[in-house]
Write a structure and sequence with these properties.
The protein has about 525 residues and is mainly alpha-helical. It has a 3-stranded mixed β-sheet, with helices on one face. The chain has a 3-stranded antiparallel β-sheet with strand order 3-10-7. Strands 4-5 form a two-stranded antiparallel ribbon. It is globular, with a radius of gyration of 25 Å. The protein starts with a helix and ends with a strand. The structure holds protoporphyrin IX containing FE.
Amino acid sequence: MSSKLLSEAQNLTGRVLLLLVGIWAVFYVAKVIRRLYFHPLAKFPGPKLAAGTFLYEAYYDVIKRGKYVHRIEEMHKRYGPIIRINPQELHVYDPTFYDSVYSGNGKWSKPPYMVRSMDPGFSAFGTLDHDHHRLRRDALNKFFSKQKVNSLQHVIQDLANKLCDKLEKYSNTGIPIDFEGAFGDFTLDAIAEYTIDSKLGLIDREGFTSDLRKTFRGLGEFGHLVKALPILTTVFNNLPRWFVLAANPNIKVLLDWDDTCLSIAHNLLRTNPDETKEHPTVLREIIADPDLGPSEKTPKRLMFEAKTILNAGTGTISWTLTTAIWYLTANPDMLARLRAEIRTVMPNARNPVKYQELEQLPYFTAVVKESLRLGFGATMRSARAAPDRALQYGNWTIPPNTPVSMSISHMHHHPEIYPDPMRFDPERWLGDTEERHRLERFFVPFSRGTRNCLGSNLAWAELYIMLSQCVMRIDLEPFQTTLEHIEMYSDMIVSEPKRWKEGPRFLVKNVVT
Ligand code: HEM
Protein backbone atom coordinates (compact mmCIF):
# COMPACT_ATOMS: atom_id res chain seq x y z
CA MET A 1 0.00 0.00 0.00
CA SER A 2 1.38 3.41 -0.92
CA SER A 3 2.07 5.87 1.89
CA LYS A 4 -0.70 8.15 0.52
CA LEU A 5 -3.29 5.37 0.74
CA LEU A 6 -2.07 4.44 4.23
CA SER A 7 -2.37 8.01 5.48
CA GLU A 8 -5.90 8.29 3.96
CA ALA A 9 -6.92 5.05 5.70
CA GLN A 10 -5.54 6.40 8.99
CA ASN A 11 -7.41 9.67 8.49
CA LEU A 12 -10.64 7.81 7.81
CA THR A 13 -10.23 5.63 10.91
CA GLY A 14 -9.53 8.77 12.95
CA ARG A 15 -12.67 10.46 11.60
CA VAL A 16 -14.85 7.38 12.22
CA LEU A 17 -13.57 7.18 15.79
CA LEU A 18 -14.18 10.89 16.30
CA LEU A 19 -17.69 10.50 14.91
CA LEU A 20 -18.41 7.57 17.25
CA VAL A 21 -17.13 9.52 20.26
CA GLY A 22 -19.20 12.51 19.14
CA ILE A 23 -22.37 10.40 18.83
CA TRP A 24 -21.70 8.85 22.25
CA ALA A 25 -21.15 12.33 23.75
CA VAL A 26 -24.44 13.62 22.27
CA PHE A 27 -26.31 10.61 23.65
CA TYR A 28 -24.65 10.99 27.02
CA VAL A 29 -25.47 14.70 27.26
CA ALA A 30 -29.09 13.95 26.19
CA LYS A 31 -29.23 11.27 28.91
CA VAL A 32 -27.92 13.69 31.54
CA ILE A 33 -30.48 16.35 30.47
CA ARG A 34 -33.27 13.79 30.67
CA ARG A 35 -32.12 12.70 34.14
CA LEU A 36 -31.97 16.31 35.32
CA TYR A 37 -35.21 17.71 33.92
CA PHE A 38 -37.54 14.93 32.73
CA HIS A 39 -36.89 12.10 35.19
CA PRO A 40 -39.53 11.17 37.82
CA LEU A 41 -36.92 12.11 40.48
CA ALA A 42 -36.06 15.48 38.87
CA LYS A 43 -37.77 17.48 41.64
CA PHE A 44 -35.92 15.84 44.52
CA PRO A 45 -33.17 17.95 46.14
CA GLY A 46 -29.45 17.21 45.82
CA PRO A 47 -26.43 18.26 43.74
CA LYS A 48 -27.11 18.34 39.99
CA LEU A 49 -23.93 16.41 39.26
CA ALA A 50 -25.06 13.53 41.46
CA ALA A 51 -28.47 13.46 39.75
CA GLY A 52 -26.94 13.63 36.28
CA THR A 53 -24.27 10.94 36.38
CA PHE A 54 -23.00 7.96 38.36
CA LEU A 55 -19.51 9.45 37.96
CA TYR A 56 -20.16 11.76 40.91
CA GLU A 57 -20.59 8.79 43.24
CA ALA A 58 -17.62 7.05 41.57
CA TYR A 59 -15.40 10.06 42.31
CA TYR A 60 -16.01 9.66 46.05
CA ASP A 61 -16.07 5.86 46.18
CA VAL A 62 -13.42 4.92 43.60
CA ILE A 63 -11.01 7.88 43.48
CA LYS A 64 -11.39 8.96 47.11
CA ARG A 65 -11.87 5.33 48.26
CA GLY A 66 -15.24 4.66 49.89
CA LYS A 67 -16.04 8.20 50.99
CA TYR A 68 -19.48 8.67 49.41
CA VAL A 69 -21.14 7.67 52.68
CA HIS A 70 -19.56 10.75 54.33
CA ARG A 71 -20.31 13.01 51.35
CA ILE A 72 -23.96 11.89 51.53
CA GLU A 73 -24.09 13.01 55.15
CA GLU A 74 -22.75 16.45 54.16
CA MET A 75 -25.26 16.64 51.32
CA HIS A 76 -28.10 15.96 53.78
CA LYS A 77 -26.92 18.85 55.96
CA ARG A 78 -27.24 21.14 52.95
CA TYR A 79 -30.29 19.74 51.10
CA GLY A 80 -32.43 18.15 53.83
CA PRO A 81 -33.40 14.64 54.98
CA ILE A 82 -34.33 13.23 51.55
CA ILE A 83 -31.97 13.69 48.59
CA ARG A 84 -31.17 12.24 45.20
CA ILE A 85 -27.69 10.70 45.41
CA ASN A 86 -27.33 9.26 41.91
CA PRO A 87 -29.47 9.26 38.76
CA GLN A 88 -31.72 6.47 40.10
CA GLU A 89 -31.57 6.52 43.88
CA LEU A 90 -32.91 8.53 46.82
CA HIS A 91 -31.27 8.54 50.23
CA VAL A 92 -32.94 9.36 53.53
CA TYR A 93 -31.21 10.62 56.69
CA ASP A 94 -33.93 10.17 59.27
CA PRO A 95 -33.73 7.15 61.61
CA THR A 96 -37.52 7.11 62.12
CA PHE A 97 -37.95 6.20 58.44
CA TYR A 98 -35.70 3.10 58.56
CA ASP A 99 -38.48 0.59 59.19
CA SER A 100 -40.50 2.01 56.28
CA VAL A 101 -37.74 1.13 53.80
CA TYR A 102 -36.22 -1.96 55.42
CA SER A 103 -39.59 -3.49 56.03
CA GLY A 104 -41.14 -6.94 56.17
CA ASN A 105 -44.42 -5.71 54.71
CA GLY A 106 -45.14 -5.59 50.99
CA LYS A 107 -42.85 -6.39 48.09
CA TRP A 108 -39.26 -5.14 47.98
CA SER A 109 -36.87 -5.53 45.09
CA LYS A 110 -33.22 -4.55 44.68
CA PRO A 111 -31.66 -2.45 41.89
CA PRO A 112 -29.17 -4.47 39.82
CA TYR A 113 -26.30 -2.00 40.24
CA MET A 114 -26.23 -2.79 43.97
CA VAL A 115 -25.41 -6.48 43.64
CA ARG A 116 -24.14 -7.33 40.16
CA SER A 117 -20.47 -7.04 41.07
CA MET A 118 -20.98 -9.92 43.49
CA ASP A 119 -23.60 -12.11 41.90
CA PRO A 120 -25.38 -12.27 38.53
CA GLY A 121 -28.61 -13.36 40.23
CA PHE A 122 -28.06 -16.92 41.46
CA SER A 123 -27.98 -16.46 45.25
CA ALA A 124 -30.79 -15.13 47.44
CA PHE A 125 -28.66 -12.02 48.07
CA GLY A 126 -28.30 -11.41 44.33
CA THR A 127 -31.99 -12.01 43.51
CA LEU A 128 -33.65 -8.79 42.41
CA ASP A 129 -37.32 -9.80 42.21
CA HIS A 130 -39.24 -9.97 45.49
CA ASP A 131 -41.16 -13.24 44.93
CA HIS A 132 -38.14 -15.10 43.62
CA HIS A 133 -36.11 -13.87 46.57
CA ARG A 134 -38.81 -15.08 49.01
CA LEU A 135 -38.73 -18.57 47.51
CA ARG A 136 -34.96 -18.81 47.88
CA ARG A 137 -34.82 -17.12 51.25
CA ASP A 138 -37.52 -19.36 52.79
CA ALA A 139 -35.40 -22.39 51.93
CA LEU A 140 -32.39 -20.86 53.69
CA ASN A 141 -34.18 -19.39 56.71
CA LYS A 142 -34.91 -22.84 58.14
CA PHE A 143 -31.24 -23.60 58.26
CA PHE A 144 -30.24 -20.40 60.04
CA SER A 145 -33.01 -20.38 62.65
CA LYS A 146 -32.04 -19.95 66.26
CA GLN A 147 -32.98 -23.57 66.94
CA LYS A 148 -30.67 -24.83 64.19
CA VAL A 149 -27.80 -22.66 65.39
CA ASN A 150 -28.30 -24.02 68.91
CA SER A 151 -28.12 -27.57 67.69
CA LEU A 152 -24.87 -26.89 65.80
CA GLN A 153 -23.12 -24.73 68.36
CA HIS A 154 -20.61 -27.50 69.16
CA VAL A 155 -19.04 -26.79 65.73
CA ILE A 156 -18.45 -23.15 66.71
CA GLN A 157 -17.32 -24.02 70.22
CA ASP A 158 -14.74 -26.56 69.00
CA LEU A 159 -13.26 -24.02 66.59
CA ALA A 160 -13.20 -21.24 69.21
CA ASN A 161 -11.35 -23.58 71.60
CA LYS A 162 -8.90 -24.48 68.89
CA LEU A 163 -8.17 -20.84 68.02
CA CYS A 164 -7.59 -20.00 71.69
CA ASP A 165 -5.30 -23.04 72.10
CA LYS A 166 -3.29 -21.67 69.18
CA LEU A 167 -3.28 -18.10 70.52
CA GLU A 168 -2.08 -19.33 73.91
CA LYS A 169 1.05 -20.70 72.24
CA TYR A 170 1.97 -17.11 71.28
CA SER A 171 1.97 -16.03 74.91
CA ASN A 172 5.14 -14.12 75.85
CA THR A 173 6.71 -14.68 72.43
CA GLY A 174 6.54 -10.98 71.47
CA ILE A 175 5.08 -11.98 68.10
CA PRO A 176 2.29 -9.59 67.08
CA ILE A 177 -0.88 -11.24 65.77
CA ASP A 178 -3.15 -9.75 63.15
CA PHE A 179 -6.47 -10.35 64.89
CA GLU A 180 -8.65 -9.61 61.89
CA GLY A 181 -6.80 -12.48 60.21
CA ALA A 182 -7.03 -14.75 63.27
CA PHE A 183 -10.77 -14.19 63.66
CA GLY A 184 -11.14 -14.48 59.88
CA ASP A 185 -9.68 -18.00 60.09
CA PHE A 186 -12.17 -18.86 62.84
CA THR A 187 -15.23 -17.44 61.05
CA LEU A 188 -14.31 -18.97 57.70
CA ASP A 189 -13.62 -22.40 59.21
CA ALA A 190 -16.96 -22.15 61.04
CA ILE A 191 -19.09 -21.02 58.12
CA ALA A 192 -17.49 -23.56 55.74
CA GLU A 193 -18.20 -26.44 58.07
CA TYR A 194 -21.67 -25.16 58.78
CA THR A 195 -22.59 -24.41 55.16
CA ILE A 196 -20.76 -26.89 52.97
CA ASP A 197 -19.52 -29.50 55.44
CA SER A 198 -15.91 -28.76 54.56
CA LYS A 199 -13.14 -28.64 57.09
CA LEU A 200 -10.91 -25.90 55.68
CA GLY A 201 -8.53 -26.21 58.62
CA LEU A 202 -7.29 -22.60 58.50
CA ILE A 203 -6.84 -22.53 62.26
CA ASP A 204 -4.66 -25.65 62.04
CA ARG A 205 -2.19 -23.95 59.72
CA GLU A 206 0.93 -22.05 60.68
CA GLY A 207 0.25 -18.32 61.29
CA PHE A 208 -2.91 -16.39 60.45
CA THR A 209 -4.58 -15.48 57.16
CA SER A 210 -4.10 -11.76 56.90
CA ASP A 211 -4.78 -11.74 53.14
CA LEU A 212 -8.52 -12.17 53.78
CA ARG A 213 -8.57 -8.53 54.85
CA LYS A 214 -7.15 -7.45 51.49
CA THR A 215 -9.49 -9.82 49.68
CA PHE A 216 -12.66 -8.37 51.18
CA ARG A 217 -11.55 -4.79 50.66
CA GLY A 218 -10.55 -5.71 47.10
CA LEU A 219 -14.14 -6.86 46.59
CA GLY A 220 -15.24 -3.45 47.83
CA GLU A 221 -12.97 -1.70 45.29
CA PHE A 222 -14.45 -3.78 42.49
CA GLY A 223 -18.02 -3.18 43.73
CA HIS A 224 -17.57 0.59 43.68
CA LEU A 225 -15.95 0.52 40.26
CA VAL A 226 -18.62 -1.53 38.49
CA LYS A 227 -21.41 0.67 39.82
CA ALA A 228 -19.97 3.37 37.55
CA LEU A 229 -18.90 0.97 34.78
CA PRO A 230 -21.23 -2.09 34.80
CA ILE A 231 -19.64 -3.46 31.62
CA LEU A 232 -16.58 -4.36 33.72
CA THR A 233 -18.47 -7.26 35.31
CA THR A 234 -18.92 -8.91 31.90
CA VAL A 235 -15.33 -8.17 30.93
CA PHE A 236 -14.04 -9.56 34.24
CA ASN A 237 -16.15 -12.74 33.97
CA ASN A 238 -14.76 -13.46 30.52
CA LEU A 239 -11.08 -12.85 31.18
CA PRO A 240 -8.77 -15.87 31.45
CA ARG A 241 -8.08 -16.81 35.04
CA TRP A 242 -4.28 -16.32 34.77
CA PHE A 243 -4.89 -12.72 33.71
CA VAL A 244 -7.28 -12.02 36.59
CA LEU A 245 -4.79 -13.50 39.06
CA ALA A 246 -1.90 -11.50 37.62
CA ALA A 247 -3.97 -8.31 37.90
CA ASN A 248 -5.13 -9.00 41.44
CA PRO A 249 -3.45 -11.88 43.35
CA ASN A 250 -5.70 -11.25 46.40
CA ILE A 251 -8.68 -12.54 44.46
CA LYS A 252 -7.21 -16.08 44.43
CA VAL A 253 -8.93 -16.95 47.71
CA LEU A 254 -12.31 -16.15 46.15
CA LEU A 255 -11.65 -18.06 42.94
CA ASP A 256 -10.59 -21.05 45.04
CA TRP A 257 -13.90 -20.82 46.93
CA ASP A 258 -15.74 -20.89 43.60
CA ASP A 259 -13.95 -24.11 42.65
CA THR A 260 -14.47 -25.72 46.06
CA CYS A 261 -18.16 -24.78 46.23
CA LEU A 262 -18.78 -25.95 42.66
CA SER A 263 -17.14 -29.31 43.19
CA ILE A 264 -19.03 -29.81 46.48
CA ALA A 265 -22.29 -28.95 44.70
CA HIS A 266 -21.55 -31.49 41.96
CA ASN A 267 -20.71 -34.17 44.54
CA LEU A 268 -23.80 -33.52 46.61
CA LEU A 269 -26.03 -33.71 43.55
CA ARG A 270 -24.52 -37.10 42.76
CA THR A 271 -24.80 -38.60 46.27
CA ASN A 272 -27.80 -40.07 48.03
CA PRO A 273 -29.35 -37.35 50.23
CA ASP A 274 -30.17 -39.95 52.91
CA GLU A 275 -26.51 -40.84 53.34
CA THR A 276 -25.60 -40.23 56.98
CA LYS A 277 -23.41 -37.20 57.56
CA GLU A 278 -21.81 -35.71 60.61
CA HIS A 279 -24.40 -32.94 60.55
CA PRO A 280 -26.78 -31.42 57.98
CA THR A 281 -25.48 -28.56 55.81
CA VAL A 282 -27.23 -25.81 53.94
CA LEU A 283 -26.60 -27.15 50.44
CA ARG A 284 -28.10 -30.52 51.41
CA GLU A 285 -31.18 -28.72 52.70
CA ILE A 286 -31.60 -26.83 49.42
CA ILE A 287 -31.24 -30.01 47.37
CA ALA A 288 -33.79 -31.81 49.57
CA ASP A 289 -36.27 -28.89 49.64
CA PRO A 290 -39.51 -29.98 47.89
CA ASP A 291 -40.57 -26.35 47.29
CA LEU A 292 -37.60 -25.68 45.03
CA GLY A 293 -37.72 -26.88 41.41
CA PRO A 294 -34.79 -28.31 39.39
CA SER A 295 -33.72 -24.88 38.08
CA GLU A 296 -33.08 -23.88 41.70
CA LYS A 297 -30.76 -26.84 42.24
CA THR A 298 -28.21 -26.49 39.45
CA PRO A 299 -24.54 -26.74 40.44
CA LYS A 300 -23.94 -23.10 39.49
CA ARG A 301 -26.78 -21.80 41.62
CA LEU A 302 -25.70 -23.92 44.58
CA MET A 303 -22.16 -22.66 44.12
CA PHE A 304 -23.28 -19.01 44.23
CA GLU A 305 -25.51 -19.56 47.26
CA ALA A 306 -22.68 -21.25 49.13
CA LYS A 307 -20.01 -18.73 48.24
CA THR A 308 -22.25 -15.77 49.07
CA ILE A 309 -22.82 -17.23 52.52
CA LEU A 310 -19.08 -17.82 52.94
CA ASN A 311 -18.41 -14.23 51.92
CA ALA A 312 -21.12 -12.74 54.10
CA GLY A 313 -20.31 -14.81 57.17
CA THR A 314 -16.56 -14.22 57.39
CA GLY A 315 -15.34 -10.62 57.27
CA THR A 316 -18.41 -9.26 59.05
CA ILE A 317 -18.08 -11.27 62.26
CA SER A 318 -14.30 -11.11 62.33
CA TRP A 319 -14.50 -7.32 62.18
CA THR A 320 -17.00 -7.12 65.06
CA LEU A 321 -14.80 -9.44 67.15
CA THR A 322 -11.69 -7.37 66.39
CA THR A 323 -13.54 -4.18 67.34
CA ALA A 324 -14.61 -5.74 70.64
CA ILE A 325 -11.07 -6.88 71.47
CA TRP A 326 -9.63 -3.43 70.74
CA TYR A 327 -12.07 -1.57 72.97
CA LEU A 328 -11.76 -4.12 75.78
CA THR A 329 -7.97 -3.99 75.81
CA ALA A 330 -8.11 -0.18 75.65
CA ASN A 331 -10.50 -0.12 78.66
CA PRO A 332 -9.17 -2.48 81.37
CA ASP A 333 -12.03 -1.59 83.75
CA MET A 334 -14.57 -2.82 81.18
CA LEU A 335 -12.55 -5.98 80.62
CA ALA A 336 -12.39 -6.68 84.37
CA ARG A 337 -16.13 -6.18 84.76
CA LEU A 338 -16.85 -8.45 81.80
CA ARG A 339 -14.56 -11.19 83.11
CA ALA A 340 -16.18 -11.05 86.54
CA GLU A 341 -19.62 -11.40 85.01
CA ILE A 342 -18.71 -14.28 82.69
CA ARG A 343 -17.05 -16.08 85.62
CA THR A 344 -20.43 -16.23 87.41
CA VAL A 345 -21.69 -18.74 84.82
CA MET A 346 -18.41 -20.09 83.44
CA PRO A 347 -15.76 -20.35 86.18
CA ASN A 348 -13.46 -22.30 83.88
CA ALA A 349 -13.34 -21.31 80.20
CA ARG A 350 -12.02 -24.76 79.31
CA ASN A 351 -15.40 -26.09 80.43
CA PRO A 352 -17.51 -23.81 78.24
CA VAL A 353 -21.20 -23.30 78.87
CA LYS A 354 -23.87 -23.09 76.19
CA TYR A 355 -24.11 -19.67 74.64
CA GLN A 356 -27.75 -19.42 75.77
CA GLU A 357 -26.30 -18.89 79.26
CA LEU A 358 -23.87 -16.24 78.03
CA GLU A 359 -26.54 -14.25 76.26
CA GLN A 360 -28.42 -13.84 79.56
CA LEU A 361 -25.52 -11.80 80.97
CA PRO A 362 -26.46 -8.10 80.81
CA TYR A 363 -22.98 -6.58 80.69
CA PHE A 364 -21.68 -9.12 78.16
CA THR A 365 -24.73 -8.42 75.98
CA ALA A 366 -24.09 -4.69 76.28
CA VAL A 367 -20.46 -5.20 75.17
CA VAL A 368 -21.52 -7.30 72.17
CA LYS A 369 -24.14 -4.73 71.15
CA GLU A 370 -21.74 -1.84 71.46
CA SER A 371 -19.19 -3.81 69.36
CA LEU A 372 -21.86 -4.38 66.71
CA ARG A 373 -22.89 -0.72 66.84
CA LEU A 374 -19.37 0.53 66.11
CA GLY A 375 -17.98 -2.51 64.27
CA PHE A 376 -21.00 -3.57 62.25
CA GLY A 377 -18.92 -4.99 59.41
CA ALA A 378 -21.22 -4.55 56.41
CA THR A 379 -21.09 -0.81 55.71
CA MET A 380 -22.51 -0.87 52.20
CA ARG A 381 -25.54 1.22 51.44
CA SER A 382 -28.17 -1.20 50.22
CA ALA A 383 -31.17 0.24 48.40
CA ARG A 384 -34.66 -1.26 48.33
CA ALA A 385 -37.41 -0.45 45.84
CA ALA A 386 -41.16 -0.96 46.27
CA PRO A 387 -42.06 -2.26 42.79
CA ASP A 388 -45.83 -1.89 43.03
CA ARG A 389 -46.55 1.23 45.08
CA ALA A 390 -45.44 4.76 45.88
CA LEU A 391 -43.87 5.49 49.28
CA GLN A 392 -44.49 8.62 51.29
CA TYR A 393 -41.81 10.52 53.20
CA GLY A 394 -43.27 13.71 54.72
CA ASN A 395 -44.57 15.73 51.79
CA TRP A 396 -42.50 13.78 49.30
CA THR A 397 -44.10 11.01 47.23
CA ILE A 398 -41.48 8.51 46.11
CA PRO A 399 -42.52 6.97 42.75
CA PRO A 400 -42.95 3.15 42.57
CA ASN A 401 -39.80 1.17 41.81
CA THR A 402 -37.44 3.92 42.99
CA PRO A 403 -34.39 2.61 44.85
CA VAL A 404 -34.31 4.21 48.32
CA SER A 405 -31.46 3.71 50.76
CA MET A 406 -30.35 4.57 54.27
CA SER A 407 -26.89 3.96 55.73
CA ILE A 408 -26.27 1.91 58.85
CA SER A 409 -23.40 4.21 59.86
CA HIS A 410 -25.78 7.19 59.82
CA MET A 411 -28.06 5.27 62.18
CA HIS A 412 -25.35 3.99 64.51
CA HIS A 413 -23.36 7.23 64.65
CA HIS A 414 -26.40 9.48 65.07
CA PRO A 415 -25.68 11.92 67.93
CA GLU A 416 -29.33 12.31 68.92
CA ILE A 417 -29.76 8.56 69.35
CA TYR A 418 -26.36 7.74 70.80
CA PRO A 419 -24.90 10.77 72.62
CA ASP A 420 -21.10 10.99 72.04
CA PRO A 421 -21.65 8.38 69.30
CA MET A 422 -18.04 7.38 68.62
CA ARG A 423 -17.41 6.48 72.27
CA PHE A 424 -17.50 2.76 73.10
CA ASP A 425 -19.88 2.77 76.00
CA PRO A 426 -21.65 -0.50 76.97
CA GLU A 427 -23.43 1.42 79.76
CA ARG A 428 -25.81 2.91 77.22
CA TRP A 429 -27.37 -0.54 76.78
CA LEU A 430 -27.94 -0.93 80.54
CA GLY A 431 -30.40 1.95 80.97
CA ASP A 432 -34.05 1.55 81.95
CA THR A 433 -36.40 -0.47 79.75
CA GLU A 434 -37.77 2.55 77.92
CA GLU A 435 -34.31 3.80 76.99
CA ARG A 436 -33.25 0.29 75.89
CA HIS A 437 -36.32 0.04 73.63
CA ARG A 438 -35.46 3.41 72.12
CA LEU A 439 -31.91 2.28 71.32
CA GLU A 440 -33.05 -1.13 70.01
CA ARG A 441 -35.37 0.61 67.57
CA PHE A 442 -32.43 2.28 65.83
CA PHE A 443 -29.92 -0.57 66.22
CA VAL A 444 -29.69 -2.19 62.79
CA PRO A 445 -26.34 -4.02 62.35
CA PHE A 446 -28.14 -6.79 60.46
CA SER A 447 -30.49 -4.47 58.56
CA ARG A 448 -34.23 -5.24 58.71
CA GLY A 449 -37.13 -6.46 56.64
CA THR A 450 -37.43 -9.12 53.98
CA ARG A 451 -33.76 -8.92 53.03
CA ASN A 452 -32.21 -8.61 56.46
CA CYS A 453 -29.16 -10.66 57.40
CA LEU A 454 -29.67 -14.38 56.93
CA GLY A 455 -26.95 -15.27 59.44
CA SER A 456 -27.76 -13.02 62.40
CA ASN A 457 -28.51 -15.94 64.78
CA LEU A 458 -25.26 -17.61 63.82
CA ALA A 459 -23.43 -14.28 64.17
CA TRP A 460 -24.70 -13.72 67.74
CA ALA A 461 -23.65 -17.26 68.69
CA GLU A 462 -20.17 -16.85 67.20
CA LEU A 463 -19.71 -13.48 68.89
CA TYR A 464 -20.66 -14.75 72.36
CA ILE A 465 -18.71 -17.99 72.09
CA MET A 466 -15.50 -16.61 70.57
CA LEU A 467 -15.40 -13.49 72.75
CA SER A 468 -16.00 -15.42 75.96
CA GLN A 469 -13.12 -17.76 75.13
CA CYS A 470 -10.73 -14.97 74.19
CA VAL A 471 -11.58 -12.76 77.14
CA MET A 472 -11.34 -15.55 79.71
CA ARG A 473 -8.23 -17.28 78.40
CA ILE A 474 -5.70 -14.67 77.27
CA ASP A 475 -4.41 -11.23 78.19
CA LEU A 476 -3.80 -9.05 75.15
CA GLU A 477 -1.91 -5.84 74.52
CA PRO A 478 -2.26 -3.68 71.38
CA PHE A 479 0.84 -3.71 69.19
CA GLN A 480 1.35 -0.50 67.15
CA THR A 481 -2.44 -0.33 66.94
CA THR A 482 -4.53 2.75 67.55
CA LEU A 483 -8.13 3.88 67.07
CA GLU A 484 -7.18 4.67 63.46
CA HIS A 485 -6.88 0.91 62.91
CA ILE A 486 -10.46 0.38 64.10
CA GLU A 487 -12.82 3.31 63.55
CA MET A 488 -14.78 3.32 60.28
CA TYR A 489 -13.10 5.70 57.84
CA SER A 490 -14.31 4.38 54.49
CA ASP A 491 -17.12 2.23 53.20
CA MET A 492 -15.50 -0.52 51.15
CA ILE A 493 -18.70 -2.61 51.38
CA VAL A 494 -17.05 -3.82 54.57
CA SER A 495 -15.89 -1.26 57.12
CA GLU A 496 -12.43 0.13 56.45
CA PRO A 497 -10.42 2.05 59.06
CA LYS A 498 -7.92 4.73 58.04
CA ARG A 499 -4.92 2.46 58.64
CA TRP A 500 -6.32 -0.81 57.36
CA LYS A 501 -3.28 -2.18 55.58
CA GLU A 502 -1.29 -3.37 58.62
CA GLY A 503 -4.41 -4.60 60.44
CA PRO A 504 -5.10 -4.32 64.17
CA ARG A 505 -2.33 -6.31 65.89
CA PHE A 506 -2.05 -7.57 69.46
CA LEU A 507 0.52 -9.39 71.61
CA VAL A 508 -0.59 -12.29 73.75
CA LYS A 509 0.88 -11.28 77.10
CA ASN A 510 -0.32 -14.09 79.35
CA VAL A 511 -2.53 -17.09 79.56
CA VAL A 512 -5.21 -16.39 82.16
CA THR A 513 -5.08 -19.05 84.84
C1 HEM B 1 -21.57 -9.51 62.57
C2 HEM B 1 -21.93 -10.26 61.56
C3 HEM B 1 -22.82 -9.85 60.42
C4 HEM B 1 -23.27 -8.61 60.06
C5 HEM B 1 -22.99 -7.28 60.74
C6 HEM B 1 -24.10 -8.79 58.88
C7 HEM B 1 -24.79 -7.77 58.25
C8 HEM B 1 -25.65 -7.95 57.18
C9 HEM B 1 -26.43 -6.91 56.56
C10 HEM B 1 -26.42 -5.45 56.98
C11 HEM B 1 -27.12 -7.47 55.54
C12 HEM B 1 -28.08 -6.77 54.59
C13 HEM B 1 -27.40 -6.55 53.26
C14 HEM B 1 -28.33 -5.92 52.26
O1 HEM B 1 -29.00 -4.98 52.63
O2 HEM B 1 -28.36 -6.36 51.11
C15 HEM B 1 -26.79 -8.86 55.50
C16 HEM B 1 -27.28 -9.75 54.59
C17 HEM B 1 -26.88 -11.05 54.52
N1 HEM B 1 -26.10 -11.72 55.43
FE1 HEM B 1 -25.21 -10.95 57.05
N2 HEM B 1 -24.11 -10.11 58.55
C18 HEM B 1 -23.34 -10.80 59.46
C19 HEM B 1 -23.10 -12.14 59.50
C20 HEM B 1 -23.60 -13.04 58.59
C21 HEM B 1 -23.39 -14.47 58.65
C22 HEM B 1 -22.69 -15.26 59.74
C23 HEM B 1 -23.97 -14.98 57.53
C24 HEM B 1 -24.01 -16.45 57.19
C25 HEM B 1 -25.06 -17.10 56.91
C26 HEM B 1 -24.57 -13.89 56.78
C27 HEM B 1 -25.25 -14.02 55.59
C28 HEM B 1 -25.95 -13.01 54.98
C29 HEM B 1 -26.67 -13.18 53.73
C30 HEM B 1 -26.76 -14.46 52.90
C31 HEM B 1 -27.28 -11.95 53.45
C32 HEM B 1 -28.18 -11.62 52.26
C33 HEM B 1 -29.62 -11.88 52.67
C34 HEM B 1 -30.62 -11.61 51.58
O3 HEM B 1 -30.38 -10.77 50.71
O4 HEM B 1 -31.66 -12.27 51.63
N3 HEM B 1 -24.32 -12.73 57.45
N4 HEM B 1 -25.90 -9.14 56.53
